[in-house]
Design a protein that fits this description.
Number of strands: 7
Largest sheet: 7 strands, mixed
Strand content: 5-15%
CATH class of the largest domain: Alpha Beta
Distance between the termini: 46 Å
Strand order of the largest sheet: 1-7-6-5-2-3-4
Number of helices: 9
Order of helices and strands: HEHEHEHEEEEHHHHH
Radius of gyration: 19 Å
CATH superfamily of the largest domain: Endonuclease Chain A
Shape: elongated
CATH architecture of the largest domain: 2-Layer Sandwich
Length: about 250
Amino acid sequence: MGFTAYPACANERTRTREELAAIMNESRFDIDQEARPPAQRVRGGREAGEVMARLLAGARRELLSLDDPSGGLKQQISERLLTRAASLVRTAVDRVPTARQLASRRGLVNDTELGTFAWKSGGHARVMSEIPFRTAVMDRTVAILPTDLDAFFNGLPIIRDPVVVRALVRAHRSWWKTSEDPAYHERADGPPAHLVPVLDCLLAGLTDDVAGARLSLSPRTYSRRVNELLTLLQTNSRFRAGAEAIRRGWA
């Protein structure tokens, strides 16, 4: 059993999650029959962070990830935990010979300040339209998967069942082949990629609270990016910033 759908839309994302559920149910049945190694259940918060740190530090040959850590703010994960996780991932990516990180386009843009994805500094990352679920596979022997499929810090099982691990590796390989190089979406004639959605929100006249929620950014991070955009446009007025962006052809 494996994954057959490429998660390009909401329906495909749902189907992919259903396929994952079927694989996990089959694994649980065989675990009950003592035919496969059981998963270790880990609670969320600090305990999940400690487990991720240990597993990432133990990776020696390969790290495969499917993640959008910037979406953690929407899951009410603190910036401190997300920053710590980003640091752990960067260290692992720098160390292991093969590291392949998959993210959504919006996730990659919103990750600029966290820096989880090291594609601009020699790392290997690709983007897809939407992440079906989050996972990380180390050395093709152990995987972690959020209990709710959305946030590692909400709790996770440590999976050593070789059938499930192989299915996740095959899925990652398939999605990697059909995903895109993030450099393709860089805009040389406009603002930095992480400021593009901020400019869109300013031009739409959204309040900071609404814009931050839409972009899954904390109020402080959104305000910091607005100030960065204003500096880039050489003004301290949001109204003039919009006019200047239009004059430059950025909008």
